[in-house]
Amino acid sequence: MDSSNKIIFIAELIGTFVLVVGATGSIVYDEMLGGIYGIGFIAAGHFVALAIAVYAFGKYSMAHFNPAVTIAFFITRHVRGEQLPIYFVAQAVGAFLGSIFVLFVIGDYAKLGTNAPDLTHDLGTVFGYEVIASIFLMGTIYIVIHFKRLVTLTGIAIGGIIAIDVLLFGEISGASMNPIRSLAPAIISGTPSDLWLYWTTPFIGTIIVAAIYKALSRREKNTSSH
Predict the structure, then answer these.
(1) Neighbour-count burial for 176-205, b at 16+ CB within 10 Å, e otherwise
(2) Are 197 and 127 in contact (CB under 8 A)?
(3) How far apart are CA 104 and CA 61, in angstroms?
(4) Tell me: the pLDDT tens digits for 72-83?
(5) Given phi > 0 = left and psi -120 to 50 = alpha, else beta, which region is 111?
C-alpha cells in the first residue's frame, strides 16, 4: 500500500470511528439517562460527529465514512476501483472499533444504537424514507464538492443534512444512510434482524444520485465543449 492509500485508510478508519461513536453514542447515552433528551440530542450527536470528522479528514480521503458513499464516488470516478477495498476495510474497522468503544465507555444500552424501524408504519413507507434520506445525504455531498466555493461549509452541510434526516426519519425508519454504521452495533449487540433494510436502501439512494450527477456532468461537459 503506497503512502497516499495509507493516509486514506487511516483517515477513513478514524473518521468512521468518530462518526459511529457520535451517532450511536448519543443514542446509548440518551437511553442510559432514561431518554430525557430525545431525538434532538441524537440528531445533534450526528451533526457534531460528522462535522468534526469531515473537517478533520476530508482533505485526505474525501470523508466518505460510508460504503454507500464510496460506491457513488466510484460511479462518478472520484474513486478508483483498486481503492475500494481500502475504503471498505477502513470503514469496517473504524465502525466496529467505534461500537466497541461505545459498549465499554458509555454502556450497554439501546442495543448500542442499532438502527431499527418503527413497524407500526408499513414497510413501503420505511423503505422509501430510508432511500430518501440517503438521496438527501448524497445530493448534499455532490453539491458541496461540485461548487468549490462551498468547501468551507462542507462539514456543516453534511453534518446538517444527516441531523435533519435523523430528525425527520429517525423515529420512523431509523435514518441509517450508512450500511457500516448499521452493521457494527447490530452485530456486536446481537440484533442483526433489520440489517437487510440498512444494507439495501443507502446503496439505492446514493447510486440514484450518482447516476444523476454523472448524467448532468456529462451534459455540462458536452455543452461547454460546443
Answers:
(1) bbbbbbbbbbbbbbeeeebbebbbebbbeb
(2) yes
(3) 29
(4) 999 999 999 999
(5) left
C-alpha cell belonging to residue 20: 459511529
> How many whole angstroms from its chain centre is CA 124?
22
CA distance 182 to 199: 8
DSSP-assigned letters across all residues of the chain: --HHHHHHHHHHHHHHHHHHHHHHHHHHHHHHTTSSS-HHHHHHHHHHHHHHHHHHHHHHH----SHHHHHHHHHTTSS-GGGHHHHHHHHHHHHHHHHHHIIIII-S-GGGG-----TTS-HHHHHHHHHHHHHHHHHHHHHHHHSGGGGGGHHHHHHHHHHHHHHHHHHHH-----HHHHHHHHHHHT--TTHHHHTTHHHHHHHHHHHHHHHHHHHHHHHHH-
Closest CA to 75 of 223, 204, 222, 198: 204
pLDDT digits (tens, 9 = 90+) for 42-61: 999 999 999 999 999 999 99
Q: What is the pLDDT of residues 126-155, one digit of tens each?
A: 999 999 999 999 999 999 998 888 888 999
For the full predicted model, state whether its pTM sits above 0.85.
yes
What does the block give as the cell for 143?
453539491
Asked whether residue 225 carries a pLDDT value surpassing 80, the answer given is no
List all residues 6 or more positions away from 50 whose beta carbon is below 8 Å from its beta carbon: 19, 22, 65, 155, 158, 159, 162, 163
The position carrying cell 407500526 is: 120
